Amino acid sequence: MKKIGVFGGTFNPIHKGHEKTAKEFYDKFNLCKLLIIPAFIAPHKEIDRGILPYQRFEMCKLAFGAEEYKKYNIEVSDIEIKKEGKSYSFNTVTALYDIYPKEENIIYFLVGTDMFFSVENWYRYEELLKLCVFTAAYRFDGDDKDTKNKIFKKRNDLIERGYKVELLENSIFEVSSTELRNKIKKVKTGQPRDLILRQYLNQDVIEYINRENLYI
Question: What is the pLDDT of residues 29-39, one digit of tens each?
């Protein structure tokens, strides 16, 4: 069976933490392909309405178009953006199996800790879990012991219910997308701004943000 990874999110903006997680996800599970899927409207997260879905899609394409990703089979997919409306994971995974038949492929579906804990609130979550290997990312040297214990307990509970669940220990990235948007707003445009943001963002993404006047 070929392993197809799915890494969805708002990516508002896509940053180096997302990129690092994508590489660790790809490498740990020996994926044959990884799909980066920006949501049109995330059911469980508010998106800055000033940023259009296609702009988040373009930033993802720029980030994963970098030379370092040439050795990976990574594709940025607009499947949820084209569909419009709320981006329900069950619908996305079902549609992907039309492209990658279940007889030959298995989807590894990556989520963060918060989403992992709230999966029972998702649209048709039981059917979704039957369709994929549900994979939760957590920070191996960042999450506290209590959080880690809850993650392992949640995984074991889901496995006992018959679902396939894996964990991805991913590296810490020191800023969230929300914090990063605030940083971009505070830092003036120009070369000093680019130097500050370069520790968080791909240079092509920075140039796109500047060109499109995003997060101002």
Answer: 999 999 999 99
